[in-house]
Design brief:
239 residues; alpha+beta; eight-stranded antiparallel sheet; elongated
Length: 239
């Protein structure tokens, strides 16, 4: 996973999660100190205070890891559904005369990313062309100012009456996509990239290009002024 988001997670644990968890625990402990003095209260007070610290830590860490990181680093947020296409540009493993006759073709390709600030993956999905499509491993990158994703994937193409004879039964491959046309500090809206795959059975093996546009959810909106203040506090200083 991207070092920036891992560093943010560690930074947030120290500046927010642990302090807030301890404060909540101390409040509970103070409340128990006001209770009637008894053996039961002396035992239950420390126990519930410790459990409260653990529960608060779980809640705040989960909130940071699953949700608030997207406000702090929106430029790394790929989570959600994207619509686009795959263009099959170059076949391998077929006779030379078939290569000469080959014409590039496109297939509709939807994709959904599952992501938090410590992990990212391509979620299982189906389309008109694919019976099943998902990643086996994925990682974020930032190189030469460009942010993107690299992932290894497995795909099973549709068989029977809905199959396309130009496609193999199944394949495994690598795909790389980069953000294009998005403002700095904003969520990515369009990505383009390349892929290449191999097959477990008969060829062809393809390489080509992909392009996806984000399907915006209603929850995707600009952060308010309170969130912006928290972002300034949570965003680690540049190394």
């Amino acid at each position: 996973m991207n070092d920036v988001l891992q560093r943010f997670h560690r930074y947030a644990l120290g500046r927010v999660v642990w302090p807030l968890s301890l404060i909540v625990g101390l409040i509970f402990a103070f409340g128990w100190s006001l209770a009637l003095d008894s053996i039961f209260n002396k035992f239950l007070g420390p126990l519930t205070s410790a459990a409260t610290v653990g529960g608060a830590f779980w809640f705040f860490e989960r909130w940071i890891r699953l949700h608030f990181w997207k406000v702090v680093y929106p430029e790394y947020d790929f989570k959600g559904k994207w619509k686009g296409y795959t263009e099959y540009c170059k076949p391998e493993g077929i006779p030379e005369d078939a290569k000469l006759k080959f014409e590039p073709f496109k297939k509709r390709h939807d994709i959904r990313f599952k992501q938090d600030c410590l992990s990212v993956m391509v979620d299982y999905d189906e389309t008109d062309a694919y019976q099943g499509w998902n990643s086996t491993i994925a990682t974020l990158f930032k190189e030469k100012g460009k942010i993107g994703l690299r992932y290894a994937y497995e795909v099973t193409y549709r068989q029977g009456e809905t199959s396309d004879e130009r496609l193999p039964d199944n394949s495994k491959g690598l795909e790389e996509i980069s953000v294009v046309g998005s403002e700095e500090g904003k969520i990515p809206m369009r990505v383009t990239g390349v892929f290449a795959h191999t097959t477990d059975g008969p060829a062809p093996r393809y390489s080509g290009t992909v392009a996806f546009d984000r399907v915006l959810e209603e929850s995707s909106k600009e952060p308010n002024w309170v969130s912006k203040l928290i972002v300034k506090y949570l965003r680690p200083p540049a190394e």
